[in-house]
Amino acid sequence: MKHFIKLLSASFLALTLLTVTGCASTKTHEGTGEYLDDSVITTKVKAAILNEPTLSSAEINVETFKGIVQLSGFVRSTASINKAIEVASSVGGVKSVKNSLQLK
User: Fold this and answer.
1) Are 89 and 98 in contact (CB under 8 A)?
2) Cα(85)–Cα(91) distance, rounded to whole angstroms?
3) Which of 50, 32, 44, 51 is closest to 69 using CA atoms?
4) Is 88 helix (H, G, I), strand (E, B) or coil?
5) Alpha-carbon span 35 to 23, nearest angstrom
6) Is there a contact between 68 and 96 (Cβ–Cβ < 8 Å)?
7) Average pLDDT, stretch 86-104?
8) DSSP class of residue 58?
9) Looking at residue 64, which CATH number applies to its domain?
10) H or E, element range at 9
């Protein structure tokens, strides 16, 4: 009986360790919590761009990885690029903004 309990405990410990390490993040892969945080940041940035009357939200794509927001797409002016960066930077949780926006 003691052997069975030890085996069951070891199995449970191994399963727990595999689960925890499977959800951990690496340089190129987000953990589960980070993925959810980034989804929230992306949604907030998109909403902030949508609420900015000088920007067209249909022209600007937003992606977030580990708190770093990347803006891409085609806009009409340099002022639009600068405003999009400013708006994205002002959102809570954004660590930095990478600009890949291009002029039409």
Assistant:
1) no
2) 10
3) 44
4) helix
5) 10
6) yes
7) 95
8) T
9) 3.30.1340.30
10) helix 2-22
Instruction: Examine the pLDDT at 9 and tell me if it is beyond 80.
Output: no
Give pLDDT tens digits for 70-84.
999 999 999 999 999
In a domain, 46, yes or no: yes
What would the two tokens of residue 43 be?
Answer: 């949604």
Per-residue pLDDT tens digits for 25-76: 565 555 656 667 899 999 999 999 999 999 988 899 999 998 999 999 999 9
The yes-or-no verdict on residue 101 having pLDDT over 90 is yes
Domain of 83 in residue numbering reads as 30-103
Q: Which two tokens stand for residue 62?
A: 């937003």
Q: Is 73 helix (H, G, I), strand (E, B) or coil?
A: strand
Residue 97 maps to a domain: yes
pTM for this model (two decimals): 0.69
Q: N- to C-terminal Cα distance for the chain?
A: 74
Please count the structural domains in the chain: 1
